[in-house]
Structures are given as C-alpha cells and as structure tokens.
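Researcher: Last one for today. Full complex below.
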Amino acid sequence: MSDLLDIRNLKKSFGALKATDDVSLTLRAGEIHALIGPNGAGKSTLIKQIAGGLRSDAGSVHFAGRDVTPLSTVARARAGLGRTFQISSLAMEYTVLQNVLLGALGQDGGVMRFFRPIMARNDLRDRAMTALTRVGLESHAAKRTADLSHGQRRQLEVAVALTLSPKVFLMDEPMAGLGASGSQRMTGFLDGLRSEAPILLVEHDMDAVFALADRISVLVYGRVIATGTADEIKADPAVREAYLGEEEEA
Amino acid sequence: MISERTVNIFLFALLPVTVLAAWLLDEPFIITLATKAAILALAGVGLNIALGLGGLVSFGHAAFFGLGGYAMGILASHAQSYAPLMEVPFLIEGTKSMPVIWLVALVTSALAALAIGALSLRTSGVYFIMVTLAFGQMLYYFAISWPAYGGEDGLSIYVRNGFPGLNTLDPVQFFLIAFAVLTVGIFLAWRLARSAFGLALSAARQNAERVETVGLGPYRIRLVAFVISGAMTGLAGALFADLNRFVSPTMFSWHLSGELIVFCILGGVGRLYGPVAGAMLYVLLEHVLGGLSAYWHIYLGLLLLLVVLFARGGLIGLLSGREVAHE
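Model: Here's the assembly. Have a good evening.
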C-alpha cells in the first residue's frame, strides 16, 4: 500500500518544551490511523504542522509523493488536505448552508465572481447539501451556525471537509461533545469514509478509536512511543504505563 | 418592527422625495444638501465593502476620496486653462466630461488602493488602521505641498463638468446624476455581498483560518475587496469635487476618513443601506446643528456614543429591530 501522507522526523519546540519531538508517521490509502495520547502530548501541534499554519523546526511532510513542507495552509488545502478542528472553527454568523457552501467554493476555486449570487450556483449548492446530508445536518441547513449545539458544530466541521473532496482527512477530535449516540453515528460514518480518503484521526474516545483504527500511534510528550494495531497497542506495556492503564482499567 | 427591506426602501426613496419637495418649494439649497448626502453615501457604500463585509477598518479611505477629487480637479483645470496635462511622450488634454473624469477617478483610486492595500493588508487590527491612516496622511501632505494644483488653497473649477445630454448646472439634474451613480453603487454592493466573492470575503472577516482551510487565500480576497472599495469611494470623490466645483487637500484629511467610518457606524456596519442612512443623518445634523452651534460635532459625538453603546446595529438596526446584520 502506498503512503499518501508521510511525515518524517518532525520537530517543534516552544522554548524548552519539545511539543513535537522527532515524530515520523505515515498514512496509507484506505486506512484510519489514530493518534492518541494524554492531554498536552502534542497531538494538536502535530496536526497544525501537517495542515500548515505552524512551521516545523525540522523534518518534512510529504503528501501524495510531494514535499509540502514549504507550502502554506492554503496551498496544502488545495493539494487535498482536508482538516477539521478540535475547537470548531466556523463562520459563526453564517448559516450552516453558507459554511458548507464556502467549502464547496474552496473546492471549486471560482472565488473571483462578483456578480452572480452564490445561491444561484446549483452545482455548489448540491455539493454543499450532499455533504450536509451525509453528516445528518440537512434539516439544519438554514440555521445560524452560532445557534448549533457543540456536537452539531463538530458535524458541520466534518461536512465542510467533505465538500473539499480531500485526498486525506486530518480530523482533530471529531467525536468531542457528540454524546454516546452521536459518537456511534460518527464512528459508523468515518468507518465508511476511509474508502474515500484515509483519515489521520486524533481522538480521545477510545471505543471509537479501537473500533475504527487500522493502526494507532501513541504520542506522549511529543514522542511516538508506539505504533501498531489496536491489539498490539493494548498489549504494549509502555503504552499501558504511560496512557491506557489508568483510563481503561478505572 | 419594520423589516429591514422596508427600511431600505424608505431610505432609498427619501432622497428623491426630498429633492422633489425642494424643487416644488423652490429650495435649491436643500437639493444641494441631498446631492451631498447621495455622494457621501456612495463613498460610504464603497468603504462599507471593506469595513462591513470584509472587516477591514480602513482609516485612510480619504486617500481614495481625495484622489477622485483631484482627478476631477486636475483634468478640469487643464481643460479650463487650455493647457494640456502632458505633451511628451503623448498628448493628454484636460477634459470637462464627467464620464471620462469618472473613469480616470475609478482607475486612479483603484490603483492606489491596490498599492496601499498590498502593503497595509500584511498587517491587521490596530496596525492596519494605523498604516491606512498613514497612507491617507501622506497624500494629504503631498497635496498641501504640491503647488502646481493649488497646494493648500486647493483648486477652483469655474463651471461644473458636463454630462452628455444633461445640464449639470441645474441642481436637480446634477442630483439625478449623483443619485443614479449611488443607485448603481448600491446595486453592485448588493450583488457583491451575495456573490461567491462576498461569501468568501465575509467568511474571511468571521474566521480567516476557516477560509484558509478550504483552500482560499484571505489576503488576495481582501486586497480585491479593498480595491473595489477604494474605487467606489474615489468615484464619490470626483462627484463631490464636482458638487463643490472645488478640490482641496481637506478631501484627503483623516477627518474625512473618520467621517466615512462614522456614516457606516451610524447607519449600521455591514448593512447595505447603513452608510446611506448614516450619510443622510450626518448631512442633516451638519445642517441643523451646524446652524445652532459651530461646535455641532459634540452632538454628533454624543449620538455616535449612543449608537455604539445602545444600538449596535446602527440606525437601521434600531428601526428594523435586528442587531446583527446577516443574510
């Protein structure tokens, strides 16, 4: 299997703190690769380094065979990195539909159109509505984003990423705040999504991670201490000590 | 409460109705005031594309207003002195034709907005405000110290420029020209706000990170918005100079940049008719309060304070009962 995303020896320090300490990992076509680790392990920092927006001190990010390390967030998004944020990052004054339309517009690229109403762009609307329907938000299309529940915002984040038809998804805690049934639904959804594009999934919900992940990497203090299948990770003594032990057996 | 659309229709009709009444009552001064309000409203509608839609608090839009004014002043002064503007390498003569002057004003202010925007949009927040202010003041002092076109004293144009088929010296006809241009400006701003570009521009104001994540560059979008905004304000400057038959460096001054922002805030930031309401209210207050006291700006200041504290949606928000402007 080919590696769509190939992260090599990434480093990032904030003063004396090594937030990302020589991290290498890969994402293969068709897989879900989960990134887990305790709070402050550097998961979100790593996602920012991959998606752009945070320059790495050293190392490189290769995406679809191309070195994207020097590229901006915008260029990486255009190349096909679809990101969702840990803390929902949406246009809050906009309706739900407008937010997904923005994604569809980004995928279309035709932003320098000044006269024709965006609502008359049936192609973009269809694309946007399809994405909303897939995450189950279609009945909320006309709602203001600021009025959505926390969980619905998470779904909207995923819907916007879907409109981009990315080659790879980078998802930072898509289950957070979804509740048990929402979490289950999202798990089912992501399970099907991997055949479209592989997912690098940062997640705290261990049930979801073990249900979904083909491979799991454990990040502790900016370092990957183990990578393997769910069973391998569960059995890994270093992981148990550093992370899983307390939470899973409590 | 009244819907925002009703308020807009009312505001739009207010100027021509006022002018009709003034014409019937034979009050040419009122017509001139209404014309001034229409032209300032156009400048405000231009600024509002950057300020309201794009969230770019430009404190230097007087630069474009002044450039439009000087485009008119320079072209018309050469036409009235029969001295060509330039002979080498090719001949450029002055002109008294409004459409040509408008075109020159649009192009000049658009180019200036491109240059100023390209530099100032690398900053944000309070730095953006300061950089745009600095550019405006640079042009202000340049105009003051440039003797060729009147320097500090400004430039007088003896006869108002012409428009094919119309008598521009007739206040009603000149009002109709200004009002027609304002109508086109509002229409374009309305379409822009609903276009693909408007969606991305407003999104960049709300959340730039979101726009980047979908693969659109906020800088480029904002720069184009700034150019469109500056060009519209520049066109208003040309009309304003024609109204007064006079241009002076005060058109470049930061007071004017501030007044344009005040129009937007008084009327309602980000609302299509916000600057229209604001400019009309401003001209009205200037006339009414200015007649009572030379220090009428104190009352304007108080009003602005009240609007900012208690009516965040501006005049239109107050009338239509909606605080937040959105689709």
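The radius of gyration of chain A is 18 Å. Chain A has two domains: 1-80+167-184+194-250, 92-165.
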